[in-house]
Amino acid sequence: MAASSITKAKLDRNWEQKSDPLTKWVLRIAAVFVFIVTCSWLDTIKDRWYVFDPTSMHQLAQAAIATNPGNTRGMVDYIVANLTQTYPSSQIAINTDKSEWVFNNAGGAMGAMYIIHASITEYLIIFGTPLGTEGHTGLHTADDYFNILHGEQWAFAPGALEMERYTPGMVHYLPRGTAKQYKMHEGCFALEYARGWIPLMLPFGFADTLTSTLDIPTFYHTARITGREIIRNLLTGKI
């Protein structure tokens, strides 16, 4: 009887050892499945969290150009003033500190940006450079609307034999999941509006800094401002 009990105990332990890895893999697969289903569901309802819209942002950019022709700083002042008047602070947080410009290196291109708004599902920035730059747009989880305020931008997608040309008042629309090469000429600045899953765009925005420029102060300030604005918006109920 004792020998039989010992043998049975050994068999039970062997079964537990063999089944334990299987159980872990089943749980992992189930967790991945639940994660994918949850993300797919959230993607279908993300529109309810948008406050801005592409048409309004395009009209705002055109109005800024008409009011301040050739004056980029005046355009920025006009845009921020209009946004603070149009959208109450109880609905959305707007960064009105126009001194918070930071370098941005991404996709091989370099410029500077002023983050006007950042939340989980939207961002609005002024981006540009007086020197000109060129690079890869990145492959993103958000739709991007690049409203040219001053200067000129060129772009092309693989297979295109003619360039796309965008001048002040025009908008360069980049659907999520697509990529292009682009070039911004001297003095080109734009109001850039993105809507979608913004946190998933951050690795592209930080990659060049962490692997090439090693500009840690810029990395710190970009992360600080972005994180601060996302939290400010979450506190108002803006996702």
TrEMBL record:
UniProt record, GO biological process: ergosterol biosynthetic process
InterPro entries, per the entry: ERG2_sigma1_rcpt-like (IPR006716)
Domain of life (superkingdom): Eukaryota
An annotated GO cellular component: endoplasmic reticulum membrane
Location relative to the cell: Endoplasmic reticulum membrane
Pathway membership, UniProt: Steroid metabolism; ergosterol biosynthesis
Chief site of localization: endoplasmic reticulum
Pfam families per the UniProt record, alphabetical: ERG2_Sigma1R
Alphabetical keyword list: Endoplasmic reticulum, Membrane, Receptor, Transmembrane, Transmembrane helix
EC primary class: isomerase
Assigned protein family: Belongs to the ERG2 family.
Xref: PANTHER family: SIGMA 1-TYPE OPIOID RECEPTOR-RELATED (PTHR10868), SIGMA NON-OPIOID INTRACELLULAR RECEPTOR 1 (PTHR10868:SF1)
Protein name as annotated: C-8 sterol isomerase
Species: Heliocybe sulcata
